[in-house]
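Bug report

Summary: structure tokens for Iron-sulfur cluster carrier protein differ between web form and batch submission.
Environment: batch mode, default settings.
Steps: 1) Submit the sequence below via batch. 2) Compare with the web form result.

Sequence submitted:
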Amino acid sequence: MCQALGVGELLQLSAIASARLDDGHVFVTWQTAREAAPRIGAIVQRLEAALEKALGVKKATIILTSHRPEGAVQGGRAPRQGGGHRPFALADGSAKNQDDEEGAAVIERLGAVIAVASGKGGVGKSTTAINIAVGLAQKGLRVGMLDADIYGPSLPRMLGHRGRPEIRDGKIIPIDAWGVKAISIGFMVDEEQAVIWRGPMVMGAINQFINDVAWPDLDVTVIDMPPGTGDAQLSIAQKLPLAGAVIISTPQDIALLDARRGVTMFQQLRVPILGLVENMSYFCCPHCHHRTELFSHGGARAAAAESHLPFLGEVPLLAEIRQSGDAGEPIIMAAPDGEAALRYKEVAEAVLQQINAHAGRDGA
């Protein structure tokens, strides 16, 4: 039983990979084997409390990680052998070829990689992904964000950055916004320029965003996935050892049907489902404060329960969320004490708990 896990056995099963102290808050990256991680993940809260008491700090946060052995299955399929060159034009007009194997060190630096996905567009996936990323950064984690929605990149506008990233020593330097290191094709093309690419070019761009970006050492990397189920999702699941997927839906039945397709896709790819989020869950009039459930309510919670999946939270439909996104300041920063920010913080906390709960399970 997890409760019987002693100190000696704990030290045999795991090791502290890194630790840092920031204003009375200690952050510990705890490395363990996949088969041992579920036992340790079950007592993470006890370990955090023990660290707080032993070190005399205000707060302790543990992130569980595990290294995938060479040749391990990724996304339910064997990893590609021999690489394959995928040229992609950089912002400075140059081109670079990179073998898949050369990205191994990069993948290690990405930390726990989570995909934020939806079965269809228009459900607030990117807005939710950004606020989850910023919410995790506010907890002191080192967070990266990769915009895999090549055809509809929204990160530049929503993060408030329009400039092109710097190229240094052949590497793309990610944009630093709101405590998150971010990369998007939107940083490299004009905002109104259509990206009219065939599938292989899209896959090449995603591959480069993994291998040819100067990612720092991160605790968590959030991937804003394109809507639907297709090549991009399959490629990412094969390329990266995903810690899990977060599915975004609105409450109405048609959106939930698409969300269920997204759940099924990741399950077929053997990617853990961290949970569902219900966006646009309800509307409160800013004048009379009357609550109206424009798109019904509770559908995502019910769908999660039916599928025996975690429900990560619900986010209201508020004009402030749209306004902050258009203004380039995530609502979690623009109005940190508002209802929307509080809901996003709850979702970010639930995502972190699920990352730890799933750490090391053979689902990537």
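Above is the batch result. After comparison, the two runs are identical; trailing whitespace caused the diff. The two ends are 25 Å apart (CA to CA). The chain has two domains: 2-65, 88-358.
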